[in-house]
């Protein structure tokens, strides 16, 4: 993913910063405990497409 894009993207729910997990192809919001998928290099920033992090999973 383009680092400039990562600088401006925020969580659509809380407007917080996102952590890029390239190995899992996702952007993670720690406060919301949601992981947004990145498909073909394009972040899918919809809550309905996000994966909820497991209780024992570190953001």
Unreliably modeled segments: none
Output the helix-strand order: HEEEEE
Terminal residue distance: 19 Å
Individual helix count: 1
Work out the count of structural domains.
1
Shape: globular
Query: What integer is the average pLDDT?
Result: 94
Organism: Ferrovum myxofaciens
Pfam family, one: Trm112p
Protein name: UPF0434 protein FEMY_12890
Family: Belongs to the UPF0434 family.
Walkthrough of the structure:
InterPro entries: Trm112-like (IPR005651). Belongs to the UPF0434 family. In the N-terminal section; belongs to the LpxK family. The protein has a single domain, classed as N-terminal domain of TfIIb (Single Sheet). With 59 residues, it is mainly beta. It has one helix at 3-8; strands at residues 19-21, 26-29, 34-39, 42-43, 51-52. The protein is globular and about 30 Å long. The longest helix has 6 residues, at 3-8. Strands 1, 2, 3, 4 and 5 form a 5-stranded antiparallel β-sheet that branches. Helices cover 10% and strands 29% of the residues. A hairpin with a 4-residue loop joins β2 (26-29) and β3 (34-39). It is built from 1 helix and 5 strands, in the order αβββββ. The mean pLDDT is 94.
Summarize the structure.
The chain has one domain (3-52): N-terminal domain of TfIIb. It is 10% helix and 29% strand.
What are the defining features of this structure?
59 residues; mainly beta; N-terminal domain of TfIIb; globular
